[in-house]
Amino acid sequence: MSERRTLGVSRAAAPKADAREGFALTGARLDKLKERARDLRRNPSDAHQALWERLSDSKVGGVKFTRHAVVGSAIADFACPARWIVVQISPEGINAEVAALQDRKLTDVGIRVLRFDEAHVLSDLDDVVAAIGEETNQPFDPRAARRGRATSAPRFESTEG
Fold first, then answer.
1. Chain-centre distance for alpha carbon 65
2. pLDDT for 84-104, tens place per residue?
3. Cα separations (Å) of 6 from 65, 77, 96, 98?
4. Residue 105 zone, left/alpha/beta (φ > 0; ψ -120 to 50; rest)
5. Which of 1, 18, 61, 117 is the most exposed, having the fewest neighbouring CB atoms within 10 Å of its CB?
6. CATH superfamily for domain 46-143
């Protein structure tokens, strides 16, 4: 019988001096993330499907969003590379420490992260879309956000298909 393992955050690990270290992936890990993103697109949750219907075709803020995009070492539920925004939907029972670590890794390289509970998306979709639209209209300078943390822009991997 195999032992079940859970994902957690190690308190022993010190933060990296360069936020970009370990952010860009290659090889087998990147391939696995791309395949997982494809699977998530093929089998969306109700909340993902509802929000995608509102974000697709540049309906919010006139900017393009992609769904389940590989951003650094994470899969973003929705990403807007033009505005450096990632929208994450947190399912019930998510490990808050892991979500906070993922958000911090993205913000450390200058990406704005909007996180919504799955129940909030399903119960008040208009409010969620309004918050996303508001953020897309905010002036944003990614260089200023990354100043002192990173030297080049992170890549948003397109895995549509």
1. 11
2. 999 999 999 899 999 999 999
3. 31, 21, 13, 11
4. alpha
5. 1
6. VSR Endonuclease (3.40.960.10)
